Structures are given as structure tokens and as C-alpha cells.
User: Fold these one by one.
Assistant:
Number 1:
Amino acid sequence: MTIQEMQERKRELGYTYAQIAELSGLPLGTVQKVLGGITLTPRYETILALERVLGEQPSYMRESAVPYFVKKQGEYTLEDYYKIPDDIRVELIDGVIYDMSSPTSAHQIIGGYIYSKMLQHVLDKKGTCLPMIAPIDVQLDCDDKTMVEPDVVIVCDRDKIINRCIYGAPDFIIEVLSKSTKKKDSVIKLNKYLNAGVREYWMIDPMKKKVIVYDFEHEEYPLIYGFDAKVPVGIWDGELVIDFAEVYEHVRFLYEREE
């Protein structure tokens, strides 16, 4: 695409520069300079990143029984969300549709291991809280503009669990970060979870081997741990501790292959 075509596409989709930066992974200043015509010879990688956002829309959007991907970002609702085929993973946040890339093996192993520890803790204690693992829809704000899909959640009020989704804010959320979701998880969803009433939010960064903990309930955040730490689950007053040295042992072979 030419820069002019990208500019026209931006106007057609109604994207802001900030939304394009978020979706493309490019710095906001870079997006503004390229699409504003200030940078006359942008890097090839920059053009590719912009084309991924401003190019032709994915086939699942075009093939819907009712064409709906003609709205501006920020105007989509759950009606649009439910028209997307089940095998395509997206999230709806404040009326904006975000594609979700397929999770990596490390992502799935880490999330699954922690979920299993949490479930076993509940079973051992005969607790009422219910750990759940993706894919599970969370209608976070109980409105028709947001539906997220965290990697691991704990819900202690079972009245919030209905057949189609979790209706309302979970008590605890984990997001395992990836390159494509890191900005969304650490900025947009962080603020959404805080404002919705989530009590505790963990972001696990497999690349940097870090765990970032936001204990909203006690206003102690962020706390940053390495993959050699034992991290207490705050909503359970530290009765359960996740040993990330053990977590790492389960994915070490993937890291060693990359060395």
C-alpha cells in the first residue's frame, strides 16, 4: 500500500493514531510521522506493520452473514462480537475489536500449570472460588461494549458464572504476555481490570522471565518477581504460593532450544 492509500484507509476505518500504534506495535510518534507525511522514506518493517493494520480486513470479517465490519473502531458491540466464527479469537474492549494471535507453547504450559495449582488448592481446601482457564469469555463491565478473554481467572462469586460467560469482574486474573498482546495487556487491560473491580492481576512475561503483580485490593503495585521467586496469591492471603522456579522447569526445554 502507498502512504496515501493508508491515509485513506485510516479515515475509512476511523482509527486514531494511538489505535494504529497499539495494533501495529509501532511507537505513536512513528505512526504520526509516517501517516502525516513527515517521514518520506519509512523503513520496510514499518510499512509492513502498518499494512497489517490498514490493509484488507480478514476474511472472517468479510464473510459474515451480515456485513458488520464497516463500523468505526469504538462502535462495535456484542452483537458484532457474536457474529465472528468461534474458531477466530478476538476481544472486544470499549467497542474496539482486537485480534488475538494463537498462543505459544510456553504460554499454554505456563498458564495451564498455574491453573492446575490453583484448582488443586481449591479442591484441597474445599473452597468456593473457581479457577478457570481460557478460552472463557468475560463480560467485564456487564455492558455490550467489552468482552475479554484472560488466560486464567478466579471467580469467587459463582453467581457471576453463567453458561455463556463470566458476567462481571473476576477476583483474580492472569495474562501471559506475548509480543503481540503486551501493550494491550499492560496498558489497556490493566486499566480496565482496575476500574472494573478485579482484586488482583498478574502479568507473566515469558520472554523477560518476570511476573508483575498488581494487588489492587491492598493498593500494593506493581510488585515484580523473577522466575526464581515464590509468588503468593493475594486474594487467598498467601495460602497458595506459586513457585516460579517450578513453573520454569516445565518450560526450560523451550528456552534451551532457543539458546
Note: The two ends are 37 Å apart (CA to CA).
Number 2:
Amino acid sequence: MKKLVILAAIFITTQSVCAQLFSKEKVANSVDNIDQKLLTWGYFLGFNSYDFKFNYNEDLEDILVDNSFGFHLGLVGDLRINDYMNLRLEPGVFFTTRNLRYDESYFNGMEFNDSDLLREVKSTYVHIPLLLKVSTKRINNFKPFIVGGMSAALNLSSNQDNPDDNSAGQFRMQKNTYFYEIGFGIDFYLLYFKFTPSIRGVFAINDEVVRDADPNSPWTGNIAKMQTRGVFINFTFQ
């Protein structure tokens, strides 16, 4: 009996949501005119997965990156251009950790231990993108869109000014990183607010590695360029 009640509740809830989102009638609520306002505000939270792209000076084994899911949150400022285009500012704070794994071939002729083969790179970014959002016409209670633009990020955990380098166990990165971004999502018009899930790819433009004092350092000597790339999954509320 309990299972039947639970299944019935799930069925009724699903029917209600589907009716709200996909019915021919638009939801009549306080967000109906949100797209006609010149300026709107909101917030977002979500998950991220950062990686590194390496270019090398010599053909050695690749540096492997163990990436994990991080967390981020921030604010949204939206400027309406017309019915289909919006300019958005989305400042946020992003937390992530990446582990770099080096092959033993990087240490040929040198003494090393297992800890030398691993570098943990923790990053806390203050990320500020300026984005252009291009939407389709609203279809009932949802509206797909694509988004793209440029961004700058300040890495609060960069270690750029740390006098110690990898010889003392400190992997260093540039404080400032610049990205281009592209993604897509869907605006859902719910009863009291607009909910927007989206996914976005970010790609660094500049080289981020701070090289060790030793030009033949096994950790940075073979890196011609190191650039962040990542995927953001955002949930926005307006």
C-alpha cells in the first residue's frame, strides 16, 4: 500500500510539472514579464571540472592530470538588448583541485622519491565573465539559448609570488588567467522564479605556469605552455 501511495504521489507531481512546463498556456505568474525588464538580477551555483592542456618542448611522456569536481557560486546581472539577446555579467567564486602526475622519465639521472612525481594544484578563482546570451523565441514555459563571451579570473591560490618553487614542493601558477567561454542552456519559467540549468566550456588563452629557477627543472623545464580548460554546470535562479 505504501509503495502505491508513493508511486501515485510521484506520478501526480510529474504530471503537474509537465503540465506547467509543456502546456500550451504560459505560466501566469510574477516572472511572466521578467524578459521585458531592462535589468534583472539573480544568483547561480553549480559544479565545475578543471583540467590542463600542455604543450611540451620535448617529446616525453605526458603529464597526467587527475581532476575532480569542484563547487562554485556567484551573482548574475542581466541587461536586455532585445527579445533574443542579453548581455550578462556573472561574477563568482570557483573552488577546484587538480593533481599533476609526472612520469619517472622526467627525473632521469636524478634522485627522486614518490612525492616528487605528484603535485597537488589547489585553485580558488574569482571568475568574472562578460557573456552574450542569444535565445530562441519562448516556447510555452521554456526557452533554449546559447551563450558565449570572454572572462578574466584571479587565482587566489596561485603561489605566483612564493619564493619557493617545485624544489621545495611548491607548484606555482600565474595569478591572472583569461578565458573564452561557450555553452548552452534552457530557461524554465516556473511559478515564482525563472530556473536555468546550463553547461559551459571555458578555455584559457594565456600560459599559466610559473617556471622554476632551474631551467632544467623536471617539473616545469619541459612545459612550453600550460592552459586551463574546464566545464561548468550552472543552476541559475532569477
Note: Confidence is low (pLDDT under 50) at residues 1-19.
